[in-house]
Amino acid sequence: MYLETSGLPILDAGGNLTGYRGADTDVTERRRAEKALAESQAQVLALFNSTNDMIWSVDPETFGLVTFNKGLRDYFSTARFEIKVGMTPERLLPQSMP
């Protein structure tokens, strides 16, 4: 069982501590849900990075990278160039030839 405790000091008229008033909340189910979510996220991340296919998502307004996988990073990254969150297509792709 997991408990979350909150409390406040009780002071007398002279400002001296006479006790505490508090409440305990059972957060066991929340902890189980958080653990299950973390495990699920780890599995998705492992799958996301286990392929050589390039997977990414972009911000719909700026078209900057939000997330990307190892396949995309390996394709674009070189010794002098590192792909980063926020990069736009103009930074990733070479200028088209006339």
Fraction in helix: 25-40%
Tell me which oligomeric state these chains represent: single chain
> Which spans of ≥5 residues are poorly predicted at pLDDT below 50?
none
Q: Roughly how many Å apart are the termini?
A: 67 Å
Please, how many helices?
3
Q: What features would you describe in this structure?
A:
This protein is α+β, with helices and mostly antiparallel strands. It is built from 3 helices and 4 strands, in the order E-E-H-E-E-H-H. A two-stranded antiparallel ribbon has the order 1-2. A two-stranded antiparallel sheet has the order 3-4. It is elongated.
Task: Give a short overview.
With 98 residues, this protein is an alpha+beta fold. The chain is 34% helix and 27% strand.
Offer a few descriptive terms.
98 residues, alpha+beta, two-stranded antiparallel sheet, 34% helix, elongated
Please outline the helices and strands.
Elements: E1 3-11, E2 17-26, H1 28-49, E3 56-58, E4 65-68, H2 70-76, H3 89-92
Antiparallel strand pairs: 1-2, 3-4
